[in-house]
Amino acid sequence: MTQIPKTDLILNPDGSVYHLHLKPEDISDTIITVGDPRRVESITNAFDHVDFKKEYREFVTHRGTFQGKELTVMSTGMGTDNIDIFLTELDALVNVDLKTRTIKEEKTNLNIVRVGTSGSMQEDVSVGTLLASEYAVGLDSLMCYYDLTQTEFENSVSLELQSATGLPFKPYCVSGSVDLKEKLAFDMTTGNTATCPGFYGPQGRTVRAKNASSSFMDSLNGYRNGNFRLDNFEMETAAYYAFGRLLGHEVLSLNAILANRVTHEFSAQPGRVVKDLIQKTLERI
After folding, report:
1. Structure confidence by residue, pLDDT tens digits, 134-178
2. Residue 203 per-residue DSSP state
3. What is the pLDDT of residue 40?
4. Which of 17, 59, 152, 203 minimizes the number of CB atoms within 10 Å of its CB?
5. Which CATH number is 43's domain given?
6. Do 175 and 154 form a contact (C-beta atoms < 8 A)?
7. Residues 94 and 142 in one domain
8. Number of domains in the chain
């Protein structure tokens, strides 16, 4: 079997993967992810007990049990570049023999649920909504580097959004896990998520640096492909869904809507909205 070169999959002296600093026994098959490292402990405080903790850079990992269910909670930091690192190394923990540096014949499929905050780009997606992402559109160039297979519909959305926004590369559109959505989000709003490669200019905000397009967010807000529209935006979901497809994992993004860019409203109690989403996720996962 072909060995993965040491420079392609870097391991630490203790045998852990390079950025996450984890070994295969450190994680469970069901993983809740958050962007903010501080949010990990706010979730695992509700656990029956926590068996394992590890922290390195923005990657914080806690493994334990909640109501008898073995769960891992991990932080990723912000942005799709972090998801590239996170999911590649997470997959290696379960699908690569790290001692022989070879890919295992029998693959493990992880269940990965992102619990994050988000902004609405449609007037009728109100602040306080809990939204499950059916599709996600990556407005970054990450998937230009991977051989991602898209359906005919997903490809049409990608091409039309490239034309609508004037981006110099094709965005990517990918669906999330139907099974996880039915299990976890049966009473939540279902929507489609735009993943932006930044918080300011890429999300249409202006502070001092001049934006290249003053109508970028309007192009996203007004886009339609039949009944398909973009309902919310954040900074990671599309990469999650793309790597879920590339690597064979079940992935779902759940979003606490804290702001509405059309009505210019921001949640008066953002902590309560996030706590509600976390509680529902823990009880149903």
Report:
1. 999 999 999 999 999 999 999 999 999 999 999 999 999 999 999
2. G
3. 97
4. 152
5. 3.40.50.1580
6. yes
7. no
8. 2
pLDDT at 204 over 90: no
Residue 41: its pLDDT value, please? 96
Under the phi-then-psi rule, with left for phi > 0, alpha for psi from -120 to 50, and beta for the rest, what region is 248?
left
Q: Which residue has the higher pLDDT, 253 or 261?
A: 253
Residue written as token pair 């992810």? 33
DSSP state of 198: -
DSSP 12-71: -TTS-BTTT---GGG--SEEEEESSHHHHHHHHTTSSEEEEEEEETTEEEEEEEETTEEE
How far is residue 77's CA from residue 137's CA, in Å, rounded to a whole number? 19
The beta strand positions in the chain, using DSSP E, are 30-34, 49-56, 59-66, 69-75, 96-97, 102-103, 111-120, 130-138, 172-175, 189-195, 232-234, 250-260, 265-266
Specify the pairing of strand 250-260 against strand 130-138: antiparallel
Range of the structural domain that residue 78 is part of = 1-108
83 plus 135 within the same structural domain: no
CB 242 within 8 A of CB 150: no
Q: Are residues 159 and 215 in the same domain?
A: yes
178: tokens are 């139907």
Cβ–Cβ < 8 Å for 10, 88: no
**Which pLDDT belongs to residue 213?**
87
